[in-house]
TrEMBL record:
TM helices/strands, residue ranges: none
Covered residues, full protein: 11 to 342 of 794
Residue span, DNA mismatch repair protein S5 domain: 202-328
The protein's name: DNA mismatch repair protein MutL
Family the entry assigns: Belongs to the DNA mismatch repair MutL/HexB family.
Stretches assigned to coiled coil: none
Task of the protein: This protein is involved in the repair of mismatches in DNA. It is required for dam-dependent methyl-directed DNA mismatch repair. May act as a 'molecular matchmaker', a protein that promotes the formation of a stable complex between two or more DNA-binding proteins in an ATP-dependent manner without itself being part of a final effector complex.
Length: 332
């Protein structure tokens, strides 16, 4: 069956970080103001995501872990638009439940008690009452315990944790109005305040030195001749050229609020710094690029981290100009 084949191929759940990504998206879709992620052994042994969102009523818990469970597609137009909510495929919980021991525990704000359901290797247990706070907690233990071929592909704990950290960091920076925290083997990695301030989120994630060095970016093209698609806007923070790291991992780019790994955008950021960076040093950046939805194709890749632009050169130039003018504003 198609879904099973896709699970086996690792197309849907590749590693702990992909589970974390799906669970955070569900929490954000549920309107959470707090999302607490905690993982054991890089997520290979355990993953828990707790939120204070709208919750799942007891009578809908079983459906939530079933195939094609989504409560989010109103009609085919929603599906084509692909926006509105982050996840729209209705198969994340089902897929994760097929390759792990999954527990979903939830209580909507208007319910007196919560309920929980457990799925083990695809076998859905009974829905039982459970005492729990408002919101939803999803626990995923022993990922890939029943698919040894997939389990073999997992890397070292530290590598898996790096991937988890990148995902959680990406969402924390994109949602400064949500308090996002990450814990590994019982130790807190970071916790943002959720006060809506991007610099404060950067402080929580990257520390004070980086947060204080960040320069504000807020750019729109002055005229159409600049080649950027109409209604382009670039906002966010980039670091002072002297506040750098030896890896490019700290360039977080978002297109229409979706975290993307767009090589062209990263290149554009680096171009803007020109000769100001020491050799093999890379700045920090948290950049939000807004373009009209019809200028961008976000569905190039199944995990949707890549994007394609109708006018890539224009968007690239916009990002470069945006960062350049932030540097110029500070005499750099
Ligand atoms: P999708 O997100 O694509 O709809 P999922 O398999 O990720 O599919 O989730 C299935 C359904 O379970 C969602 O549509 C939603 O109704 C419910 N759900 C999952 N996670 C949460 C959560 N954290 N809070 C509230 N509802 C949730
Ligand atoms: Mg989902």
């Amino acid at each position: 069956e198609r879904t099973i084949q896709r699970i086996a191929a690792g197309e849907v759940v590749e590693r702990p970080a992909s589970v974390v990504k799906e669970l955070i998206e569900n929490s954000l879709d549920a309107g959470a103001t707090r999302v607490a992620v905690s993982v054991e052994a890089g997520g290979t042994e355990g993953i828990r995501v707790r939120d204070d969102g709208v919750g799942i009523p007891a009578d809908q818990l079983e459906a939530a872990v079933a195939e094609h469970a989504t409560s989010k597609i109103g009609d085919i137009e929603d599906l084509e638009a692909g926006v509105g909510t982050l996840g729209f495929r209705g198969e994340a919980l089902y897929t994760v439940g097929a390759v792990s021991r999954l527990t979903v525990r939830s209580r909507p704000p208007d319910a007196d008690v919560g309920a929980e359901v457990t799925v083990e290797g695809g076998d859905v247990g009974e829905v039982r009452p459970a005492g729990c706070p408002t919101g939803t907690t999803v626990e995923v233990d022993d990922l890939f315990y029943n698919t040894p071929a997939r389990k073999k592909f997992l890397k070292r704990v530290s590598t898996e944790f790096d991937h988890v950290n990148t995902v959680v960091t990406g969402y924390a920076l994109a949602n400064p109005d949500v308090a996002v925290s990450l814990e590994h083997d019982g130790r807190e990695t970071f916790a943002t305040e959720g006060n809506g301030d991007l610099r404060s989120a950067v402080l929580a994630v990257y520390g004070r030195e980086v947060a204080e060095s960040m320069l504000e970016v807020d750019w729109e093209p002055e005229s159409e001749e600049e080649g950027a698609p109409p209604a382009t806007r670039v906002t966010g923070l980039v670091s002072h050229p002297e506040t750098t790291r030896s890896a490019r991992d700290y360039l977080a780019t978002y297109v229409n609020d979706r975290y993307v790994t767009a090589g062209a955008l990263r290149e554009a950021v680096l171009e803007a710094y020109g000769g100001q960076l020491a050799p093999d040093r890379y700045p920090f950046a948290v950049l939000f690029v807004e373009v009209p939805p019809d200028e961008v194709d976000v569905n190039v890749h199944p995990r949707k981290l890549e994007v394609r632009f109708d006018r890539e050169a224009g968007v690239r130039a916009a990002v470069e100009s945006a960062v350049e003018s932030a540097l110029l504003d500070h005499g750099l």
